[in-house]
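Batch manifest, entry 17 of 40.
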Amino acid sequence: MLHKTTSHLLFGNQYCGIEHTSIGGKETINATILKKTKKELNIDNIYQFNSIEHLSESIPKNTHAFLILNNENVLTKKVENGQKEAVKLVHQAFPNININDFMYEVLVQNDVHFVSICRRSYIKEVIKSYESKRIYILNLSLGNLIIANITDFIDEKIISTANAEIEISNNEISRIESSQTMDDTNYGLNGLEVNSKSILTLSAALVSALDNHKSITNFEPEKRQLTTAYGHTVFFRKFLAFALIFVFTALIMNFLAFNHYFNKSNTLEQSAQVNQNIKTQVAELNEKVSKSQKMVGDLLNNNNSKSSYFINEIVKNLPTSVQLKELNYQPLLKRIKAEEAIKNEVEVILVSGESTDSNIFSDWIALLEKKKWLSKVEVTDYADISTKRADFKFKILLSHD
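Output type: structure tokens
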């Protein structure tokens, strides 16, 4: 149940299959979107465009998709033997390739196998092109091998795609033959009607929904990375929406609370007009407020108007490896108490923080010591709190000039 909930939050109820192919030498993008309603899958939309940009303008934003690369950059070969290991089949089909430079997909069957390869650099480039248009590729298939996932649902023995004719025998692919002529044939897949140009994209969308990919690939780590990155994107987007809702709700609650207490305050104020005892209390409070204001005024009067200038001089050359925690201009010598004058340390600035580079910290102190407006810098503490960080405290004595 938890897995289903997480999957729904991440992938929603729509599954998109995209075929990146070429027809007549021109780039062609076919796409099919399936929508899951209750326990049924239905075709929501079918598209055909000549660029990724046009596709991105029509499908929902932030769509996740299963991509089929099916153009001249993909090579497919048939291997007939009893071998079942995918890597060995790749080397038999393409004995001279550097396998690290290619992504491969192997359809292992009884005696007839198919191997498709494509350069890794080209695949990454295409995936980035889709991602730049906010279409997130989470799975990949090469050539026409995705058809193997729907052989159980289709009765036809010959299937035409954008660039090939595929023969099905005993629910397995027995032949894939290139074809430049695409028949506009309709096919029925377990109640879903689709034509030749959309047969591969429907297959990809079904694989995403049913999670029944049959072939073997060497790009599983890349697929996991793409899924993880997409999950982070979805989480951030939904978290941001949740945060906005939360803030809006908090503002409404704050307004209601403020309104409630404001009305209550008005009632008390009206009662105060006829209650001498409350008037007396208010007078006493006013007296306390006046004393507090006087104390604050004394403190502000003791501050020099040059405080902003000194603080700006300290932080304007602050290294990135130094993080300030405290910058206290003319600090208090003791706590403020009622009926007592405020005492503070005149012509002194206390500075504390963290440093990740002792040499840069020393250079910064040396730079400060050259300032004409100070007479001395006293480092009172520099202690390591880890192998990369240290706490520091120092005192700046201001010049009397």
